[in-house]
Design brief:
The complex is a heterodimer of chains A (270) and B (285). Chain A is α/β, with parallel strands linked by helices and 270 residues long. Chain A has 7 helices and 11 strands. Classes of the chains: A alpha/beta (270), B mainly alpha (285).
Chain lengths: 270, 285
Amino acid sequence: MDAQAHKETLITLSNAGVTRGGRTLVRGVDMTISRGEIVTLIGPNGSGKSTTAKLATGVLKPSTGSVTRQPGLRIGYVPQKLTIDWTLPLTVERLMTLTGRYPATAIDEALEAVGAQRLRKAAVQELSGGEFQRVLFARAMIRKPDLLVLDEPVQGVDFSGEVALYELVRQIRDTTRSGILMISHDLHVVMAETDTVICLNGHVCCRGTPSAVKRSPEYLRLFGERAAHTLAIYEHHHDHEHHDDGCVVPEGHAHEHHHDHEHAGHDHVR
Amino acid sequence: MSIITTMSMRGTTMFGDYFSRALIAGIGLALVAGPLGCFVVWRRMAYFGDTMAHSALLGVALSIILSMNMTLGVFAVAALVAGALIVLQRQATLSTDALLGILSHSTLAVGLVLVGFLTTVRIDLMGFLFGDILAVSVEDIAIIYGGGVAILAILVLAWRPLLASTVSPELAEAEGLRPEASRLVLMILMASVIAIAMKLVGVLLITSLLIIPAATARRLSATPETMAAVAAILGAIAVVGGLFGSRTWDTASGPSIVVMALIIFLVSLTVPVTRLFGRRETHGA
């Protein structure tokens, strides 16, 4: 990535930890998120991914260490599998102004950016998983956030929808100057564009570029050999920067990449 | 409690005759209960509201014993019960469902027992259980409208954060809102509505005025704001219809209002939902 030129740090966690009721939820986390950077948190359930994200957004205060945020930092949040009860009538249009007031033109633009403008008048309950996720992206982006937090952005979305959403994240990174913090339960898919993967298990057990993490002994110890064999790094197929890993792309594009990892995408290509 | 004679409306001021007072008080209550009831429905707090309402009788008994204002007493006890529930939920030993069952019926029972001990004052128990809207005084109307305006004002001012934390507490929190504070605000508003509604419809029927108009409004609304407004209007219609019905057929006024609300709800079920909203545009060129 060539964004090193103007690296503006948005959030810094240094040796941050949270203790609640005598129980340590997470400890010793060092993390920085800069503009135009994608940071992905992976780890098993209860490993402190959400806690770490909450430290970053300021929902939780650190019990140890420190968290510094750029003053006035605006956060956009895409929640994990949000279910909105039928009893709550909500159109896509109304959802867009959930946490703030925006003019109609801004709503149009935001929906258009994710290709959901025709859903404007639709009730949220009748959207498909992928459509709803796109609308939630648009809702977070309308705030013009400095930091976009994506909590399990592809959960409950089918494979082609998943690829499209990663593509959308890439696009958002390129067109806005937001920093992106992604949380993933899915240990197997990490976007190739991720600048830093932080692998958590109560503490940071390894970190680095997707390909470095995949090879790290800590990752293998935590998730086992088999997980490492199926860790797929999703790459954008027009991206000619070559990585030394396999990738998951929709059928028909696979030949455009060289694979030196024949197990890549095992669990995902159907 | 029953209406024996048809009243002559002639020569009385607006507040002068009991039937007009009942109408004014009931409409005032419905206009507040409708919008607040929407949150009760959205957040699945129906049983929670019931529990708070049942505790109102305990509030009545305590305020007589401590010789304090009854509306304040009921508000305080309802708010305390809500607080107790939150604390007990944090312990996470029993399910919320079971906790509500315990609190709901024990506060009602304790209230009834305490009322039995009050030998110095005679209490119209039926009036507190099922309401006595026809006995509403001008002072009661002042409390209903004063409290009602305050409740609606808070609801309007806090609308966006309240709605956002109803849709997703995580989202609201991450974007700088405070869902815990929203929850607290809602509980206080509910305790207030229960305090001003108890005299009118009684502890056993209060939650119906919160829930039935809101549930009816759902099928007729495409946005949360319309649903709140429609619920207020439907509630007012139920009050007017119920009161005239009770006068015509000499039936108990509180239950008549609830029956009217139910009839409107049943009629609304015949409206096809998909016709009204939620259409997506078809693929264009």
